[in-house]
Sequence to fold (980 residues):
Amino acid sequence: MSLKDNSNLEWNPAPGARLPLARDGTALITSHSCGKGTQDDPRIIYISKTYQKFGATELDEFNQFARQLCKDLGFTHIWIREIFFTTQWSAAISGYQASLDLDDLETINNYKSWDSIQCNILNNVPQSISLIQPALEHLGVFTEFFRTKLVASLDTTFFWGGLGCLLQLIIDSEDPEVLQKVPGMMKQLILQAEAFNDFCDHTVNAENPIKEACFDMEVLYLDFHICCIRYLRGEGGDYGGRHPMQLIERRFISTKRDLKEGLDRVQRVVQSRPSRVQPPLGTSEVVVSPKFRCLMQPDSRSTRIFDRVEIFESLDQILASDNTRSSKSVALYGMGGVGKSTVASSYLARKYDEQAYDVLLWAHGEKSVSLRQSFTDIAWRLKLPGARSQDHGENLMLVQDWFQTTDSKWLIVYDNVNDANTLMPFWPSSSQGRVIITTRNRSLAFDPVSDGLEILPWDAQTGCDFLFFLLKNNIGRDLESETTSALALSKRLSGHALGLFHMAALIHDGEFSIQRFMTMYLKNPRRAHGDDTLSALWDYSFKSLEEDSLNLIGVLSYLEPDCITQDIFEGADGREFPDELEFCSDEFSTANAILIMLYDYSLMFSHHVLNLKDCFVEEVKASKTFLPSREFCALLSSCERFLSETNSMTELDALSAINWGALQKLGDVPQKSDLEVAILSHQAQAAESIGQPLKAIELNKRCYNIRLQEEPPNHKLLCFAANNLGYCHNTANLHEESEKWYETSKSHWNMVTKQLEEIHDRPARHIKNHARCLVYLGKYRQAKEMFDISIPRLMSEKPLNWAMLAYGLFAQASMNRRLHLFEVAEANFIEAQNIWIKGDQTRAHPFYAACLYKIGACCLDQGKVEAAIKHLRDSLEILKVHTTSRPVEHARSLFKLSESLLQDNMDTSHAESIKLRDEAESVLKSANSAIMTFDTESAYDDLSMKMHETSPLLTAARRRAAVGNRVLDAQITGSRNGVE
Fold:
């Protein structure tokens, strides 16, 4: 029986039903019986309805069906694919429309095109949305290809409406996780469309397989957008109480896989027809687009390279690609100034020009501070979603994730690395890629890198040739004398590349011949050389200045060596400014601009201070009579403050120890006790943060005793010092002693109000800390009373101290969980998490990881296993960055995740649970070999240093939310660990 005999199918066309025309204007189906093409031919409509009732979902299946139907109906020709695309697209839209509520459909109708989204949504949006706008441009190009190349004028208004509705939901969402993660997912998916665009840029008449792939990809994008809308709405109870982000992440993974398959089909078609379509080089489908390339180099570098061909060849051999995707690394080691960095930067430039790598990166490896800043710069250069200029921990996580997921060929240089301990937290966690480090430390050539190349100074003749290479236009007429002088200078400098380079610069700037310069250089060799061959460079640099310039520099250095007066930056009334400086005419605008700049300047100068500290240590070793100044100790103390606020605890611990030793050499100086308290307080803060609360208690007691000896006693400072001691005892699980110190702090505050003869409320953060102590003592009624007082006060403070409020909510949640009020506790933890992310906007801080851990634990307490697993995995991702400083917290999350997996129904969960449990026990036992119990959460909590509240003002002081506390912090001269 032929298909037209099916009595269940209707033959009558629907009123006004039409099928689109082909691109050449003819009907999609030409009827032999009618003798002409027509859109209204009832047989065409019959084919469409027959197809829908037949239920074909694949093009090959539809082909077979349509050929038979056309034969039965007497058609001579049919554009089968065009009918398939039209009918399938209409059916998909109808299905998605039926799945949405009326409000969302109304929102979708507001956005008809990419232009309408740009005009109505993408103005004044959060940074996570604005960062994906370039990717959305690529999606616009892709959708235009879909609209015009597959069938004449496919309707894409519903597609753009769905995208606009999703973007609006993300912007309006109160869940910070949605705002942070979903735009990044969208960008990664859209990068597949960008790759498609690059493949098909020059395709005038696209092949049928490319059209099919484009259709499938467009439907996948629409499906992801609509599913996200439904998950975020969470209506109908169809999702089993699962968290929307969990559902979105699952849909993202499957969509990304399917898009990748579609793009692979396009690539195979293009590569099989090189005469028609050429594929772009270096295609990447994961994070960077096929044509995205990046080269990072140091700011100061030599653009001229000499005699390094053999080293470049050796690097090529070591880093050469093979059939495996394993990573390879090499260390360029040698004495300072022989040209290691120049070799590395020149090699990067050469490989970039040769297109051997897609992405070539540069990181300054001297200190953790410089490495953190370098990874922030890398995150910005790679345009990674979520990158922020002041959030180094988050940026490190983003870059490490990029190393693991990208298919781009990449190479990174770590320049001037001193030791492996500094480097390892920033070492790529990927099993692919290439790494070069430059170092003076030969041991790094064996660990962590796999190969080493020593860069040696040149011999005298090669150094002489290098001088001639640099001084082509400064060679005297007497070539023999010039050659003899150049050879002599090369011998004097032992073929040292940097020394020869600087000497060449002096010769060039002074317009000397080499022979004349050597005459000057040899007049006083002892003074010129000093302790090393390069010490004369500074003197010769200043000799190039005219007398007036030298005099002016001398006067300025004498009068104001470290300060420029503020008057220069203040505009007088009526003064006109150029457009780019118009903000200077308004004090508020100027203040805002300066506030934004302060952080970057502090970071820049902190590097100099840390180098100054290293110079001080070397000078003390060389001279027993060398003494520091009080200004030097104050400078280091200011840098300590900055390091504490940027969570650089390792550097803070080392710097404060050196500063304490320097201060003890001074003898009696004005305000020495204030400096001592500041340094001790910073040392205590660092000790507490890295898991040494007993040491922190000892240091804080010394602070308290110093304040106690002052006459007359300053009870405000004593109040804060006692509060710090209460906090540290609480952290060390010495809760009874903690309560005593909080009572002492309270008595000092009462003395303050008595002296002022006014009633002043005890600081809300002190009450919150006291309540936290009472929770661990089991005095829940008293703790609740204090939380009921402190948390509303913290909420009403102006400006809002979001850090203290988040800690207060966290402590309150901990109490509710102990009382088995799991749902209330979960809500408290989520509120603390939201307050933190809105104020700090960083997911990399340990407190954020603690919030995720506690939320996961509460979910498990309530039997919400999938939600618990999600939050605990997210917590572990953050703690990977802090494994060295927070091993117990890391073990605790491993243990809790293993508990959750035991209750999961997935086939692989049990095996993973056992593995995580063993890892957690190993970490816990290494932290305390006396521990014998590993099967309870409390075993880990007892060792945990309460990571969620370690150093509560760790980062808050540099945030605008805590500006109101800075005057008080200055008054207590650095007593900032714990609470203050």
